[in-house]
Specification:
single chain, about 300 residues, alpha/beta, Rossmann fold, seven-stranded parallel β-sheet, two-stranded parallel sheet, 9 helices, 13 strands, about 40% helix, binds nicotinamide-adenine-dinucleotide, binds uridine-5'-diphosphate
């Protein structure tokens, strides 16, 4: 059945793919975004569609609309962007959650929170399971994001316990693909943009830290499958690709796939950069029958082609 669906952060990387997916399924989608890191170009293909509407709005202010479902994605996700104005980042996570939960309460909408693997901080449990409470520095440069997202999870569960809200919380692990901004600053887009320009590939630290990279199409399927679960299944639920790579391996792979002469150079490791990260997705497999299908090589190929087209 066609639903009215609100997507905050809908002009961003993940949000715009989610808008495409839900409009294609026949839903009426309202994209809410303040364009801090999002771009109109990401949603240009939907602008003439009568099932799609855009609202320039900052989620730190209340929002009054009618809606059946809310996907709350608004928040800068790249360290350089979320550290640019850390107070606003915390406000976006915390006030944004309060405002969207208030909206969900008023109109009795189901609401999904885009949480993050960053709630596990620099983890001692590996791979990370949902039961792990994490190891997060509360006063460091990443805290505005990590603690903001942790507080948002707290608010989601308190609204559920206190007001019986129909909540869903997914913890997203590093996701990449077309429509990441050229200046996004996260590792996959940085390395691809650098490789295509023949510039140095900037590895932070010695490149032995690990991450697990999920292709965007898999992630969007995970979001939609989670939203469709029965009331009472709240998560938190990990979504990500359990294939784990060192940042050094990623750099080599991208250099070889781009066929570039770029050299790998080493920069200082940013403070509190997690040593390792890999999702345990047993719960997502069991509850959603979901697992990623796209191999890193195939996803990188699509992403490299996207950035090549942008450069043309
Ligand atoms: P993104 O930066 O491309 O998208 C975020 C969007 O939110 C942008 O369009 C931005 O303009 C918008 N936004 C920021 N502050 C806002 C505000 N106050 N009001 C309204 N809109 C605002 O990042 P993304 O990768 O698409 O991430 C989307 C969500 O998923 C974020 O909540 C992020 O924390 C979460 N997440 C993403 C990843 C990932 O690897 N991509 C990993 C973990 C969590
Ligand atoms: N990184 C890197 N070079 C870059 C950008 C990032 O070596 O140009 C490293 C970063 O230090 C981290 C990993 O890649 O260890 C992933 O960084 P990203 O910002 O993509 O995400 P997060 O740290 O939030 O997982």
């Amino acid at each position: 059945m066609s639903q009215h669906i609100t997507i905050t952060g809908g002009a961003g990387f993940l949000g715009s793919h989610l808008c495409d997916h839900l409009v294609a399924q026949g839903h009426d989608v309202l994209c809410v975004d303040n364009y801090f890191t999002g771009q109109r170009a990401n949603i240009r293909q939907l602008l003439g569609n009568s099932h799609f509407e855009v609202l320039r709005h900052d989620v730190t202010f209340p929002l009054y609309v009618e809606t059946d479902q809310i996907y709350n994605l608004a928040c800068p996700a790249s360290p350089i962007h979320y550290q640019f104005d850390p107070v606003q980042t915390t406000k976006t996570s915390v006030h944004g959650a309060i405002n969207m939960l208030g909206l969900a309460k008023r109109v009795k909408a189901r609401i999904l929170q885009a949480s993050t693997s960053e709630v596990y901080g620099d983890p001692e449990v590996h791979p990370q399971v949902e039961e792990y409470w994490g190891r997060v520095n509360p006063i460091g440069p990443r805290s505005c994001y990590d603690e903001g997202k942790r507080c948002a999870e707290t608010l989601f569960f308190d609204y559920q316990r206190q007001h019986d809200l129909d909540i869903k919380v997914v913890r997203i692990f590093n996701t990449y693909g077309p429509r990441m901004a050229e200046n996004d600053g996260r590792v996959v887009s940085n390395f691809i943009v650098q490789a295509l320009k023949g510039e140095d590939i900037t590895v932070y630290g010695d490149g032995t830290q690990t991450r697990s990279f999920c292709y965007v199409d898999d992630m969007i399927e995970g979001f939609v499958a989670m939203m469709a679960t029965e009331k009472g299944f709240t998560g938190p639920l990990n979504l990500g690709n359990p294939g784990e790579y060192t940042i050094g391996e990623l750099a080599e792979t991208i250099v070889s796939m781009c066929g570039t002469r770029s050299r790998v150079v080493y920069h200082p490791l940013p403070q509190d950069d997690p040593r390792q990260r890999c999702p345990d997705i047993t719960l997502a497999r069991e509850k959603l029958g979901w697992e990623p299908k796209v191999q890193l090589h195939d996803g990188l190929k699509e992403t490299i082609e996207y950035f090549r087209r942008l450069a043309d």
